[in-house]
Specification:
The chain is α+β, with helices and mostly antiparallel strands. It has 6 helices and 6 strands. Helix content is about 30%, strand content about 20%. A 6-stranded antiparallel β-sheet has the order 1-6-2-3-4-5.
């Protein structure tokens, strides 16, 4: 039996096997809430992780980090750290992204809140109908459920 054939049996007993034992046979450990290596390599997933790491940072209008953010400042900062450039405002960011449908959205896509054709807010889609965003004055960067259907989605290319 090869080392790879033994991985499933070790994974079943992952609670009793050490991480070293699993690694020794070429296995891996899945950690909830952390993307697999292949997904972690994408700029969108990196940006999502960076935004999440800013949880609790205070909102400040016009701020682009690293300690305070407004909504588009958080997305700008997160994607810049992930190796992608975005313009400064939510509306400019919407115009720079590849527009996608709600059914094609993926974690790491941008979520744009709009009233008619006016884009007024942006966050990073985290999956399961939630976004990481910097909501408003007096609030902090947080994960929150999308509260309206008046949203558009954009993918940073």
């Amino acid at each position: 039996m090869t080392a790879l054939n033994r991985v499933p049996s070790l994974m079943v007993r992952a609670g009793t096997a050490s991480a070293f034992a699993i690694a020794a046979v070429g296995g891996s450990i899945a950690v909830p809430g952390v993307a697999p290596d292949a997904a972690a390599a994408t700029p969108a997933t990196k940006a999502l992780q960076i935004a999440a790491s800013k949880k609790g940072s205070p909102y400040k209008w016009g701020a682009t980090g690293p300690r305070r953010f407004d909504c588009s400042g958080l997305t700008l900062y997160s994607f810049k750290k992930a190796g992608k450039s975005l313009p400064r405002t939510a509306a400019q960011q919407y115009n720079k992204t590849h527009h996608i449908s709600a059914k094609n959205r993926k974690a790491g896509d941008l979520v744009f809140f709009h009233s008619g054709s006016y884009v007024y807010h942006v966050g990073i889609y985290a999956g399961k109908g939630k976004i990481w965003h910097a909501p408003k004055t007096g609030d902090v960067v947080k994960l929150q459920k999308i509260w309206t259907r008046s949203v558009w989605y954009g993918r940073v290319s």
